[in-house]
Amino acid sequence: MNNLRKEFPVLTQNTYLNTAASGLLYDSLLDFRQEHDLDFIIGGSMFREHQATFLKNVRKTVSSFFNCQENGVVLTPNFSLGLNTILNGFEKDKKILLLEGDYPSINFAVSNKDFDTCYATIDEALEDNIKSVIKKDRPDIFIFSLVQYINGIAIDLDFLKTLKTEHPDLLIIADATQFCGTRVFDFKTSGIDILGCSGYKWLLGGYGNGFMLFNDGVLDKITPSSYTIAASKSSYDSSYTSVQARFECGHLDTFNFGSLQYSLNFLTKIDLYAIEKQIDELCAYALSEFAKLHLLEKNVINRPKHSTIFNLKGNEKLHNHLKKHNIITSLRGSGLRVSLHFYNTIEDIEILLDALYRYR
To answer: Are strands 73-76 and 141-145 parallel, antiparallel or unpaired?
Structure first.
């Protein structure tokens, strides 16, 4: 893993603890992107003649990476656009379960469309809270982030499998933007009906690319009947009228989605199991050290597992202090957000800890 750090120039000048805000660009991806645009500038429209085949290969790469059927993969510039397309097709009588304080791209997207909503509290008893609200309010749809963007609380993946077994009619939609790329994940067996992700964070794909994964039959199920009827009467090409075309309308950028594909292959070559092991070791060490300094909320400390994201007690003054020492973090919520990826090291955490000690 230390050898891989050479791929990321920003690491030579900074202690980068901010993947939850933006994943890093790396040398070999830059080479791909430059070659892509060189081919475009030379070929013009001829370069785009094979875009359909190219994008089909991207979907194939995504389906292989997450173990999802290829016809269940939809490419979208980001998670938020994909989710809004889904929501626009739902009847307003649907009741939707959300998590209090979840990502605004989820909660605001739902609330501004006047759906009937109910909420579960995010704390150390998150899964029990969800079960209680489902029993009480009987929602039709559950939309949530797999990992909370402020404090890193992660929902138990085994809980989701059980939840789907106990409530087979509950449509489960997950935002995995702060999750995908941190560990091995099998979509088919996850219990999740729809999983969306933007590719610019842990997947290192750069901006302007993302995807939605749909389990068997779900894409047809959520397509409005008005769309299906109009498509059946249309003489247009299927690229305009298929159920996937609701999401993939207009041109898709081979630069952006090629970058996503390149990074998925890059992570595969590194080995997702090795990445997961590295991240788990880093996060276990970070959690232990942050807890010793009383920097974490008890809701995080009291949960059996945690993610790659930590929110430390701190303010803008501390954030600026760290930035002066080239330690890159984010201000989120009421504290300082630190996030770790495979290119981080124990030494990075120790540099942060030393800076915190000195600041105190």
So the answer is: unpaired
Contact in structure between 27 and 3 (CB atoms under 8 Å): no
Provide φ and ψ at 127, rounded to 5°.
Answer: -65, -40
The residue behind tokens 């059996």 is 304
Superfamily for domain range 3-26+271-359: Aspartate Aminotransferase, domain 1 (3.90.1150.10)
Characterize the bridge pairing of strands 210-214 and 194-198: antiparallel
Strand pairing category for 335-339 and 73-76: unpaired
CA distance linking residue 311 with residue 151, whole number of Å: 5
Q: Per-residue pLDDT for 1 more than 80?
A: no
Residue 240 is predicted with a pLDDT of 87
Question: At residue 359, does pLDDT exceed 90?
Answer: no
Q: In the CATH hierarchy, which fold is given to the domain comprising 29-268? A: Aspartate Aminotransferase; domain 2 (3.40.640)
Delimit the CATH 3.40.640.10 region(s) of the chain.
29-268
Burial of 113 (0-12, 13-18, 19+ CB in 10 A): middle
Cα torsion for 344, 345, 347, 353, to the nearest 10°?
60
**Tens digit of each residue's pLDDT (9 = 90 or more) over 296-306:** 999 999 999 99
pLDDT in tens, 81-137: 999 999 999 999 999 999 999 999 999 999 999 999 999 999 999 999 999 999 999
Maximum pairwise Cα distance, the chain: 70
Question: What percent of the chain has a predicted confidence (pLDDT) above 90?
Answer: 91
Distance CA 180, CA 177 (A): 6
For residues 346 and 2, the answer to whether their CB atoms sit within 8 Å is no
If you average pLDDT over residues 47-74, what whole number do you get?
A: 95
